[in-house]
Design a protein that fits this description.
The protein is mostly beta strands. The protein has three helices and 38 strands. Strands 34-33-32-31-37-36 form a six-stranded antiparallel β-sheet, with no helix packed on it. It has a four-stranded antiparallel β-sheet with strand order 1-2-3-4, with no helix packed on it. A four-stranded antiparallel β-sheet has the order 5-6-7-8, with no helix packed on it. Strand 6 and strand 7 form a beta hairpin. The radius of gyration is 21 Å and the shape is globular. The protein starts with a strand and ends with a strand.
């Protein structure tokens, strides 16, 4: 997980899954420090569950023993105190999804709690919550937002203000005060995994055992077959790339029986561009798309950088066992997390090429040689006056 606050501090977090008590360790680094290799300051906190998200104001939300809390970089603040159940055990509320406009969705048993600006709006089953507070969900998860599923569901809105929900491998859309269900794929034994708006949101890309471009008209869901999101891509919901385009990962079969990685840029009518044998879409820095080489299902340290219709640069990032995550605090400024630390690259040259600026050392507790996919959020922080995309793809775990 990564976030940047208004002072320019960069935050990372790691899950420590202890047998008796889960722990969330948070580190802070300061890019403005003159030292070329500053180290992280550390904060460790026991949490009741390992689910945590980052709100659009940069605060970390987690479930602690005393209740749902947010960490603002200096201290934890209780948002919702724990309540005792009939059994005497606390009834924990834990965060599951964070959007724009400081919208955070939390779960408690079979119900969901909607928060905005650190205040609880309502508690209800998810579909009822969306139907009752459609405008808040539209603000929190607009078409241009970099959406992601949390393992249980995925939410996005389209240009018409319809709310799309993928839950329990089913795709639904809330439109004209009614829920419409995508039954075609379910009848054929298929399943849906994620939904993400394409372009300006005129259509939505539905990813699953079959993939579609979808929209709603006259009370019906209209479907067009779309390229599959194949293999084990870094993002099964697509990467929001230059000009709000949506890039997906795909495999192409070669004559010798092998398969090559292909990146496809989707438009509302289908594929617009493709980049073959240069990796899968992994991260977007403004108008620049970073394509990651995949090896044995993991993100390797090699990147191809696509800009203005062609590969402009190739970089190999120092470190072993691949890349844990990437994020940006401003256009042309990219941080890459590997086992050797957090590497900062800048694109300050006239030709737009990235050069290594500095490396932030990591404490031993942040370094691991194993990787896994993380359900944490990708999000945009508006406080810098421009859309700043922060993506978290992988975290090290014990």
């Amino acid at each position: 997980m990564q976030a940047v606050d208004d002072s320019g501090h960069v935050y990372l977090a790691r899950e420590l899954n202890a047998t008796s008590q889960p722990k969330l360790r948070i580190g802070r680094l300061s890019p403005q420090i003159v030292d070329a290799r500053p180290s992280l300051s550390m904060h460790a906190e026991n949490v009741s569950r390992l689910e945590f998200v980052v709100a659009s104001d940069g605060a970390v939300w987690a479930s602690r023993r005393d209740g749902l809390s947010r960490y603002d970089g200096a201290a934890w603040h209780v948002i919702e105190p724990s309540k005792q159940q009939d059994s005497g055990n606390p009834n924990f509320v834990f965060p599951v999804l964070a959007g724009l406009e400081n919208v955070v969705l939390c779960q408690s048993n079979n119900e969901y709690a909607l928060f905005q600006h650190n205040r609880r709006v309502a508690v209800a089953p998810l579909r009822k919550l969306i139907a009752s507070y459609r405008s808040i969900f539209s603000e929190g998860f607009p078409p241009h937002f970099s959406h992601r599923p949390n393992g249980q569901f995925c939410i996005t809105s389209d240009a018409q203000g319809n709310i799309w929900l993928v839950q329990s491998h089913q795709a639904l859309v809330y439109t004209n005060d009614n829920w419409l269900e995508l039954a075609t794929i379910a009848k054929n034994g298929g399943s849906m995994n994620a939904a993400s708006a394409v372009g300006n949101g005129a259509r939505v890309f539905l990813s699953g055992s079959r993939c579609f471009l979808a929209d709603v008209s006259d009370g019906k869901i209209n479907l067009t077959d779309a390229p599959s999101n194949s293999g084990n891509p870094p993002s099964k919901f697509g990467i929001r790339g230059p000009n709000a385009s949506l890039w997906i990962a795909n495999l192409i079969a070669l004559p010798d029986g092998s398969r090559s990685q292909r990146a496809i840029r989707l438009g509302v009518d289908g594929p617009l561009d493709e980049v073959v044998n240069n990796g899968w879409p992994f991260f977007a820095d403004g108008e620049v798309l970073w394509l990651a080489d995949m090896k044995d299902g993991l993100v390797a340290n090699r990147f191809s950088i696509w800009r203005e219709g062609e590969i402009r640069q190739r970089l190999e990032i120092p470190g072993i066992s691949g890349v844990y995550g990437m994020f940006s605090d401003r256009p042309g400024s990219v941080y890459i997390w590997t086992t050797l630390g957090v590497h900062h690259y800048e694109s300050a040259m006239a030709n737009g090429l990235y050069v290594s600026d500095k490396t932030f050392q990591l404490p031993a507790t942040f370094v691991s040689h194993s990787q896994c996919y993380s359900p944490l959020a990708g999000f945009v922080l508006p406080s810098f006056g421009f859309p700043m995309q922060l993506k978290f793809i992988r975290v090290p775990q014990d």
